[in-house]
User: Fold these one by one.
Assistant:
Number 1:
Amino acid sequence: MFYTGCRFHSGLTKIMTKKNIKINFREKFEKFSEQWKPKVITELNDYQFKLVKIKGYFIWHNHEKTDEAFIVIDGKIFIEFEEKIEEINEGEMIIVPKGIKHRPYAKTEAKIMIIEPKGIVNTGEILDKLTAPNDDWI
Amino acid sequence: MFYTGCRFHSGLTKIMTKKNIKINFREKFEKFSEQWKPKVITELNDYQFKLVKIKGYFIWHNHEKTDEAFIVIDGKIFIEFEEKIEEINEGEMIIVPKGIKHRPYAKTEAKIMIIEPKGIVNTGEILDKLTAPNDDWI
């Protein structure tokens, strides 16, 4: 009842997350080390909450049909827009409006949470070496 | 362009929040002191992000048509379900599934963020002294 995730992980381990069980961000971040690979931790209706570790520059991209929320859990990130750069620290968030070109980056590894509708590809319309598997649960 | 909020506040001050400007949770929490009165800080498509200070017991209620996300920014909260109580601390979150009866409470004041679709009333179907104004921006 109320399972938000039900995926086969690492071949054998089936991960199930009940919606009405609390989630600890630190514990979830300890479960992976790759950068720029969003990991789904739960769902709110048809939206997903994803944790990501980022360092270095992402690519310029946009999401044609949806806004995207970035919440910084640990560290500092930057989001470059065509006309400015926003610095976002732990305890801060930003909404990137739909259709707006942006490029996230971090000088040292930062831990962030992204909230967006299910099915959104991290690089938008662009296929890149940074394009990550979708719907990857931890 | 990309305004998420445009409200008349305190009679004269017009508050506008651009979607692509970062939001600092601590600064927003300093702008109000009432408990159990959710304050909208931004929007993601047709969802709202709301900050709330809570202390004591809320009422039993549910939201028939939507899940509800609680993220604890500062302190500790409890969410009582019919079969159990979940304790949620800073750095943790929980999704309350749609239709499920729950009662949030906090022993000392806690600061939380709620994410849910626009138009959701905090007490669900129930009209109570704790029913808060909707769409109240800071």
Note: The interface with chain B takes residues 2, 4, 19-26, 42-45, 47, 49, 66-69, 73, 79, 81, 86-88, 91-98, 100, 102, 115-117 of chain A (CB under 8 Å).
Number 2:
Amino acid sequence: MAQRLVVIGGGAAGMSAASAARRVDPEREIVVLEATGHAAYGLCGIPYYLAGLVERAEALYSYPPSYFRQRRRIDLRLHAEAVELDPERRELRYREGGQDRRLAYGDLVVAAGGAPVQPALPGVTDARVVTVRTLEDAVALRALLDEGRLRTAVVVGAGYVGLEMAEALHARGVRMTVVEAAAQVMPNLDEPVAALVADEVRRHGVDLRLGVPFEGVRRDGDALVALVDGAALPADLVVLAMGVRPAADVATLAGARTGPAGALLVDEEMCTTLPSVYAAGDCIAPQHLVLGRPAYLPLGPAGNKTGRVAGTVVAGGTARFRGVVGTAVVKVFNLAVARTGLTLTEARQALGAEPVATDAVGRSCAKYYPGSEPVTVRLVHEPGGRLLGAQFVSRGEVAKRVDVVATALQAGFDVADLLHLDLSYAPPYAPVYEPVLLAAQAAIAPSAVPA
Amino acid sequence: MAQRLVVIGGGAAGMSAASAARRVDPEREIVVLEATGHAAYGLCGIPYYLAGLVERAEALYSYPPSYFRQRRRIDLRLHAEAVELDPERRELRYREGGQDRRLAYGDLVVAAGGAPVQPALPGVTDARVVTVRTLEDAVALRALLDEGRLRTAVVVGAGYVGLEMAEALHARGVRMTVVEAAAQVMPNLDEPVAALVADEVRRHGVDLRLGVPFEGVRRDGDALVALVDGAALPADLVVLAMGVRPAADVATLAGARTGPAGALLVDEEMCTTLPSVYAAGDCIAPQHLVLGRPAYLPLGPAGNKTGRVAGTVVAGGTARFRGVVGTAVVKVFNLAVARTGLTLTEARQALGAEPVATDAVGRSCAKYYPGSEPVTVRLVHEPGGRLLGAQFVSRGEVAKRVDVVATALQAGFDVADLLHLDLSYAPPYAPVYEPVLLAAQAAIAPSAVPA
């Protein structure tokens, strides 16, 4: 019994941990407790399921529960919610089928994910005020959309989830207001880059209101009314997209050490400060390799990788997770928006040296090739020195363009090193001078940018 | 007069050199001698001009000649062909308007580009046997295509130019045979990767014949007949795409040192072994950073960059070109095919250690997102050690995927370092595990690839 591995959370991180442990140790008992009715699905696919681009919710599964149970012999328990952890006795209390149960473990992996931020405001418990964080949330909302009962919505929050939700609802013909307390969309971009994204949102007829507080909702008879900056906005639905916080309470209450945003601190092997308790995914703050300290950036790739490392290590294998550099991409209507490293704002807040930003506009492919689009790129760097980050916006490809800078950050490049990159070129795919090279050239010798 | 800068060649490298020199030195006299009637155009755009995707030849210009003459005060002379170089007297003999002329120079940049390989075979001087290396070649061929007079063609050579030509002619309704002496298409790919490309070519109805020698052409009355492996193939046109050699004769005959393929050897400042003679573009063999020695890889980005470095240095500025890692991408019908570093074949020929290849198939974006395509990736590396190269094939995006590996090669990464890359993810653009990460995982721990 002492050898049993228990994983809290059946999301990407938890199922990666369980699967990696099974690969290393074919014999060990592995139990996964998942609070919802779905496991091992792509959370980031939810907007596309809501939009109707993905027909069935099950299409988001990496594998169905039966696969994990039968092929990988993982005891995956759905609707099973961890409640309390006793690290001394190595015992977990959880609820399943309305009953309180206990489970002894040899090792525990906490991979409970993130939970949507819920503001303490009037009316937010109304049934028509929703968050969309789980596949169950999404299935319920999709049913409403399929019934054609939603004509207007207010989305609270213009981070990447809020904007993805806005796009999805727009695709279903819902008229929409997006309200954001900050003065810009996407706080993880610098303002001039965020302004390009805001333009795109408004171009699609979304009523985007920046710098205005959301104050709650009230009912006006049957009708729902969102309260925004003193105004009353009638809406059939209010979607809260105010960010995600680590769902780490079980471990935190048992004494695990936490860092930024209250996320669990772990080492490169995903060990928390509690004995035999590991953590992975959206409830941890991994090392940020540019910042040089932990950061809370709940994103899919790190979730999968940290889960895999936790499961490998816990089962006796060898694995390490060095950290993240903060790479992300999001589709906002027809724009692809990508970032890695630090924004200028982040760099100025975090680092001693005085960083600068260099902007350039290149092309997605040869200018004469059909479909060529401008690519806006911002490099953040120490003057003539260390590369710190990049942001890209384009109607063309940027997701894999940002990866070049992510790789350069991992390598510790100076901005001048970018000039020497031997990047691929063919008219249908790339211009002869990649946008990032134009920006690097401008960063080194402002007067020497090729016209 | 001694200070005059003369540039041989008005292609991408030559015009980059002239423009860079003008930026550094606003006063100097700069003369560019271009043998053809066009300058500063994107050579790689020719197939798309022939296919009709690009309407006017002038669309391939980066800038028209008048721009260079007036705005950059560059004395660009078209139809002016360098004939002989006297490095002692710093004098160049050239032909212009049917006349022999002489030009003294202070510095010379040789950027004469590449010339198509012309086999010494019967009939290859026939007017319907063409190479397509210059915009003039392309304009003449486009006129034939627009007249609708070409129904059948034989393309000799299945390297990337041959395959691009095949695709262009196919787009214009020409029935085609492609013959290649080697046993595979694209000798710069490993055979299993090249086989995927060959399938794509054949899928489009092209009669692709591998491992067969081209033996010349003959006339059969008015009809043209290509002689291939003893067979006679009637054709309205024969396109020779048998590779490119450095057009370095002027410098070579004057005693400049050459390396692979007879290309000029240069240092990081683009100096040849002749005093005050620099070289750039498709006539040089720059350092290959993975091979650790010069290599002849005539490609656009290095052409532009080496031209720029030569022009900057020659005018008194500071610039360096460290070298290439052999990154290239090509569109072959619906496939994108990319490579960087060394193939397994190249690595085995070149390096002492015994390299290996690890193959994986990932997805271009989330598997449930519309348009998701398989991405085949091959990593070449020392066993558990140094990364040496990669090849990618997909109907989805690979051009910027290969750039990640190119950046990793520049950084001197081991294959294990790839596992730690923080690459962007969003369902419309990328899977949560990038194909290159799947391959790196397989390279490190063959049994631990995520299923």
Note: Residues 132 and 398 of chain A are 26 Å apart (CA to CA).
